[in-house]
Structure formats: C-alpha cells, structure tokens
Write a structure and sequence with these properties.
336 residues, alpha/beta, Rossmann fold, five-stranded mixed β-sheet, two-stranded antiparallel sheet, 9 helices, 9 strands, 34% helix, NAD(P)-bd_dom_sf, D-threo-aldose 1-dehydrogenase activity, estradiol 17-beta-dehydrogenase [NAD(P)+] activity, oxidoreductase
C-alpha cells in the first residue's frame, strides 16, 4: 500500500522489476527434493532451501517475482529459475498521453543466459505473453525437453505510472488488459491439457490493490481484480481434473521499483517511511517472501485451490487515513 497516488503497491509489479522476468513454467516433481534458489536483485545467492526444484522455467516480462527464482517479482527472488524478458504491449503512438507502455527489462536476457549456465536443468526462453505464437512455442519447448508440465506461474505484468481517470485512454487500458489479464489467460489455456495430465497447478500473481483499490490506478486495479476473479472461476472448472489454481496478492514489497519511485518524490525518506508504516508488522516485504509463498502453493498446498494468498504484512487490516489530500472534510453530525 504505498504512498498515496505514487505507486504500484504490489509485489507482482515490484517483483517484476528484477532480474528474472515474467511468467514461469516449470516441470518438477514434488518428490525430487531439489533445492530452491533465492537470489537478490543482482543474482547473488541469498539462500538455498530444500524444496522441489523446477526444472525449467520459462518466462517473460519483468523479472519474476517471487516465485520464479532469481531475485525475482516481479515479480523478487524466488525459487528456482526464472527467466525471461519483459513482454511489452505494442508501443503507443506518441500523440496519446494516456498510453504508457512498460520499459523493457534490458538485463533480463543476459542474466537469464548466465543463470542457465549456473543452474543445472534450467532453460531460458524469451516469451512475450501478448503473442500467442510465443506462448505456444514456450509450452512446446517445455514438453519437448522435459516431457511434462507440472506448474505454471503467471507473473508477467505491468503497473503504469499514476493517472487520474480522465488521464487514461481506452487504448492504454486495452494494452494493459492484453498483458496483465489476457497474457495470463492465454498461457493458462494452452497449458491446461498438459497440467490435466500431470494433475499440476497454476499460480497467478495478482495484487492486494485488486481487492482494496488504489488511487490513480483504475486500469491496473481492474486487471488485477480480474486475475483474482479468474483464479477462482478456473479453480472450480479445473477441480474435476485435479488441477489446483491459486493466486498470490502481494502488498508493499521492497524492490528496485519501490526505490525508484521513492527517489522521484520530493522527500524519498518520508515516502519510504509512509510505505513502511502501512504494514502492522512495521516493515515492507522482500521478494523472497513472495517466492516462499509461491513455492508453498506449488509444492505443499495440496488441499488449497481457489485461494488468494495475501503476502502483505497485514497492510489491509485496521483503519487508516483514506481521504485524498484536498478532499473536503465534514465534521460528524451528532443527532439531537
């Protein structure tokens, strides 16, 4: 829940600001006992934990956030290996100020290639989830190399800069829907035949603001709310095949994006403090927190489907200042 009107308060977005990028697909065996690698934003090892290791992640977009594996996202470091590069919607015409396309994750490919060499069994593939042919190729390559698919992590996404409703455009909204919602839909739909065979699972990265709202973020909030709703509907449909479908909704996750946004404000220190105090726990989350949640849903949460796992530090709890600065204030009226 970051400072009023300034940020993408979320993990998926934040999480998507790091090294790994985008959606993750990986075949793995829960019995494999392989290690899960958690890295920082520069790809340095932070910890290794005994969780099933995804053999092959495929992804795209901004770095994988939690769940992926390399410092994710975002979206955050995660479990195993994520890799790809940011998927960008078609560049908007310069004449339309309401359309703002995401910036490319330039270091993603080189870091992904390096990770491929460092982690045995890792395969890096670039995939733009807004292009169905890319997604088909991604899944085909996964099956060709590993023979099966057990888990899909839909993490590709983007959070535009803050905009009041009148500053947005239908074109910009459509582009955001293509990436944040239809990208998740397309990869999920094409992966389902394989997930049904393996009785696998899907993890969608949504956002806390999809449930509670966010100032100056109507299109983004709408796309994330839709991701959460789609998760629940899909969980019902796929239960007959033994496929679990869940989502993670991060809150304030300290990532390069948060740091960058804070630096753009008049008082970065005050901005960071405001974001920090939004959590009852008194601190922001780390990408690894989202990654750990994803690992849990992918490998141990066998009786969980259709859930929205909040990784927020309790930011949604209690009362707080909600009125936008400048809103007319009216004193309470006591009935006579």
């Amino acid at each position: 829940m970051g400072p009023h009107s300034r940020w993408p308060q979320e993990g998926s977005r934040d999480l998507c600001q790091g090294l790994c990028c985008g959606n993750l697909l990986f075949p793995f065996s829960v019995q494999s006992g392989a290690q899960v690698v958690i890295c920082d934003k520069d790809g340095e090892w932070v910890s290794l934990s005994p969780h099933p290791q995804p053999l092959l992640p495929h992804t795209q977009k901004s770095w994988p956030p939690a769940l992926s594996s390399l410092r994710p996202r975002s979206p955050g470091p995660q479990p195993l290996l994520p890799q790809t590069q940011e998927s960008r919607p078609p560049a908007p015409p310069p004449s339309d100020p309401g359309v703002q396309a995401p910036s490319p994750c330039l270091p993603a490919e080189s870091r992904g290639r390096a990770l491929e060499q460092e982690l045995a069994g890792t395969v890096f593939l670039l995939c733009d989830v807004t292009r169905e042919e890319d997604v088909r190729a991604l899944i085909s390559e996964t099956i060709r190399r590993f023979g099966r698919l057990d888990c899909v992590v839909n993490n590709a996404g983007y959070h535009p800069p803050p905009q009041w409703p009148e500053e947005t455009s239908a074109q910009g909204f459509r582009q955001l829907l293509e990436l944040n919602l239809l990208g998740t839909y397309t990869l999920t739909k094409l992966a389902l035949p394989h997930l049904r065979k393996s009785k696998g699972n899907i993890i969608n990265i949504s956002s806390l603001v999809g449930a509670i709202g966010q100032v100056q973020a109507v299109p983004y909030v709408a796309t994330k709310g839709a991701v959460t709703a789609m998760t629940k509907a899909l969980a019902l449909d796929e239960s007959q095949y033994g496929v679990r479908v869940n989502c993670i909704s991060p809150g304030n996750i300290w990532t390069p994006l948060w740091e960058e946004l804070a630096a753009s404000t008049p008082d970065p220190t005050a901005t960071v403090l405001q974001g920090t105090l939004a959590q009852p726990l008194g601190h922001m989350g780390q990408p690894a927190d989202v990654g750990a949640a994803a690992v849990f849903l992918a490998s141990e949460a066998n009786f969980c489907t259709g859930i929205e796992l909040l990784v927020t530090g309790g930011a949604e709890l209690g009362f707080g200042r909600k009125a936008i600065p400048g809103t007319p204030v009216e004193p309470p009226i006591i009935p006579s």
